[in-house]
Design a protein that fits this description.
Elements lengths: L2 H4 L4 H19 L2 E4 L2 H7 L13 E5 L26 H8 L3 E6 L19 E2 L2 E5 L5 H8 L5 E6 L5 H7 L2 E4 L19 E6 L2 H11 L29 E5 L9 H16 L3 E5 L7 H16 L18 H12 L2 H14 L5 H21 L5 E5 L14 H5 L6 H5 L4 E8 L5 E7 L5 H14 L13
Parallel strand pairs: 2-3, 2-6, 9-10, 9-11
Antiparallel strand pairs: 1-3, 4-5, 6-8, 7-8, 7-12, 11-13, 12-13
Bound molecules: glutamine.
C-alpha cells in the first residue's frame, strides 16, 4: 500500500501486517540486515509528533544511515556490531514526523556496487525473479518496497544507487539535488556525491517523503538553505508546451534493445501529453564512468581511512602491536571491493599521479556539469534510460569493470549534482521491470516529480502494471 492510501487505514493493524509480511518474505528476499520486533518499534515511536502524513507508517532505512541504539553496519563486516549513539538527520526528521522504523535495509558493503552482491551479509535477490540481482547499492531498500514488505525506504545515491535498484525492482527512486538532503549521520562513501533520498511505490509518495527529509542542516555545511517547497503541489500540472530533451549520446553505450523500446514508448506517452521531444547533446557522456570512478574512489579511500578498529567496529585479535593491529583489522574487516576502491583511490591521489588522474577527472566533471547546464537552456528536463539492461543474473558480472559500466546513465548526473528520478515504465519479455530516468536542473525536484507523476497517471491502466512479484 502507498503512503497516500495508508492515510485512511488502521495504522496499528498495518504495522502488525508489515511485521508479518517481513517475516514471511525475508527468508527468500533478505532485504534487511536487521529487523525490529513489535516491542522494539515502540521504543522510538514519537506520539507527540501529532499527525503528519508519515506518522504511524513503517519505513526501512538503508543500513548506511546511523540509527540511534540500533545496529548500523553499512552491510560491511567492519561495522558488525556498531551501535550508533545518534541518529542521522534524515532519520531524526522521520522519527520527528512519527515514522516507524521497522528495519535496516541490506546494500552493497559501504554502498560500493550495483547489485548488493558486495554485501558482507549476503545478496538481496530481485523480487521479480529470484535468480537475478535487485540492483544496488540500495538493493535491499528497492526489493523490500517492491515486495510489499514496507511502503517506503530511505536509500542513498552516489553514482546511481537509488535510481538503478528502483529501475530493476519496478519502484520509484528519487535522487535529490546534492545538498538538498543532509548527509549528517550517513556513513560516507564519496562526500561530494552522496545523496540520501526516498524509494517509494508512487511518485506522490516520493514527494511526501522529500517534504519531510529535505532542508538546511547546521550539521552538514553542504546543505542548501534554498527554501523547501511543498513537493506535492505541482504534481498534476499540465505538461503542455514543456520540452523534454533526449541525449543522443545515450544510445549506443551498450543499451539493451528492450530497454530502448520501453524508453521509446515512454516518449510517445509524453508526446500525447503535449510535450515536445527535443534532441540534445551531452558531449562528454562517454567520460562519465571513468571520471566518476576516479573521483569516487579518491574520496572513498579517504573516507575509509578512519576504520582502524580502535574506537569502534571490527578489531582483529592477536596483533603484535598497534601497527600490526591496523593492518590486520583492515585486511580482515574490508571485503575485496572496498580494498579495490581504497587502492584505486590512493593511487589516483598519489603525488606522481594526482595531476594525470584526479585533477583531470575533476576537470572532466566540470565539463559534464556544463553539458547539462547548456542542455537546460533548451529543455525543461532530460529523459534517459536508467541502466543499460534490466536486472542481470546473480554472479553474471564477476568482472568489476562490467559492473561499473552499469552506471553509464546515472554517474554523469551524480557528477553534476543534479536531481533525477527513476520511475517504472514497462517490462522486458522476461517480466523484468524497466525504468526511465527524468533529470532536472539543480533544485528543480518539483519539476521532475511533476513530469514523473504525469507519466504514472497516463499509464496507470497499462497492461504491464498488472504484473506481480514472485515473493
Ligand atoms: N554503482 C555505483 C558504484 O558502485 C554507485 C554506487 C552508489 O551510488 N552508492 O559506485
Amino acid at each position: 500500500m502507498s503512503i497516500k492510501e495508508l492515510q485512511k487505514q488502521d495504522k496499528v493493524k498495518f504495522l502488525a501486517d508489515t511485521l508479518d509480511r517481513i517475516k514471511e518474505v525475508e527468508p527468500k528476499l533478505h532485504a534487511f540486515v536487521t529487523t525490529l520486533t513489535a516491542e522494539d518499534v515502540k521504543k522510538d515511536y514519537r506520539s507527540e509528533s501529532g499527525m503528519t502524513k508519515l506518522s504511524g507508517i513503517p519505513v526501512g532505512i538503508k543500513d548506511v544511515l546511523c540509527t540511534r541504539n540500533l545496529r548500523t553496519t553499512a552491510s560491511a563486516k567492519m561495522l558488525d556490531g556498531f551501535i550508533p549513539p545518534y541518529d542521522a538527520t534524515v532519520v531524526k526528521k522521520l522519527k520527528d514526523a512519527g515514522a516507524i522504523i521497522v528495519g535496516k535495509n541490506n546494500c552493497d558493503a559501504w554502498a560500493h556496487g550495483a547489485s548488493t552482491e558486495n554485501s558482507d551479509y549476503g545478496v538481496t535477490p530481485n523480487p521479480w525473479d529470484l535468480t537475478r540481482v535487485s540492483g544496488g547499492s540500495s538493493g535491499g531498500s528497492a526489493a523490500a518496497v517492491a515486495a510489499g514488505e514496507i511502503p517506503y525506504s530511505i536509500g542513498t545515491d552516489t553514482g546511481g544507487s537509488i535510481r538503478q535498484p528502483a529501475s530493476f525492482c519496478g519502484v520509484v527512486g528519487l535522487k535529490p539535488t546534492y545538498g538538498r538532503v543532509s548527509r549528517y549521520g550517513l556513513i560516507a562513501m564519496a562526500s561530494s556525491l552522496d545523496c540520501p533520498g526516498p524509494i517509494t511505490q508512487t511518485v506522490e509518495d516520493a514527494a511526501i517523503v522529500l517534504n519531510t527529509i529535505a532542508g538546511k542542516d547546521e550539521k552538514d555545511a553542504t546543505t542548501s538553505d534554498s527554501p523547501v517547497p511543498d513537493y506535492t503541489k505541482d504534481l498534476d500540472k499540465s505538461l503542455k508546451g514543456m520540452k523534454i530533451g533526449v541525449p543522443k549520446e545515450y544510445f549506443g553505450l551498450g543499451l539493451d534493445k528492450e530497454v530502448e523500446e520501453v524508453f521509446r514508448n515512454s516518449l510517445k506517452v509524453y508526446e500525447k501529453l503535449g510535450v515536445e521531444i527535443v534532441d540534445i547533446t551531452l558531449p562528454h557522456t562517454e567520460y562519465g564512468v571513468a571520471a566518476y570512478y576516479i573521483i569516487m574512489t579518491a574520496e572513498t579511500s579517504s573516507n575509509l581511512g578512519r576504520y582502524d578498529g580502535v574506537k569502534y567496529g571490527y578489531n582483529a585479535k592477536e596483533s603484535k602491536d598497534l601497527i600490526d593491529s591496523y593492518f590486520k583489522t583492515r585486511d580482515e574487516g574490508f571485503g575485496d571491493e572496498a580494498k579495490r576502491r581504497i587502492m584505486l583511490g590512493t593511487y589516483v591521489l598519489s603525488s606522481g599521479y594526482y595531476d594525470a588522474y584526479y585533477l583531470k577527472a575533476a576537470k572532466v566533471r566540470r565539463l559534464i556539469h556544463d553539458d547539462f547546464i547548456k542542455a537546460f537552456e533548451k529543455v525543461d528536463v532530460i529523459l534517459s534510460p536508467v541502466a543499460p539492461t534490466p536486472a542481470f543474473k546473480i554472479g553474471e558480472k564477476a568482472d568489476p569493470v562490467s559492473m561499473y559500466l552499469a552506471d553509464v546513465f546515472t554517474a554523469p548526473v551524480s557528477l553534476a549534482g543534479l536531481p533525477a528520478v527513476s520511475i517504472p515504465a514497462g517490462f522486458s519479455k522476461d517480466k523484468l521491470p524497466i525504468g526511465i530516468q527524468i533529470i532536472g536542473p539543480h533544485f528543480e525536484e518539483s519539476k521532475i516529480l511533476n513530469v514523473a507523476h504525469m507519466f504514472e497517471k497516463a499509464t496507470e491502466n497499462d497492461e504491464w502494471r498488472k504484473n506481480k512479484v514472485v515473493v
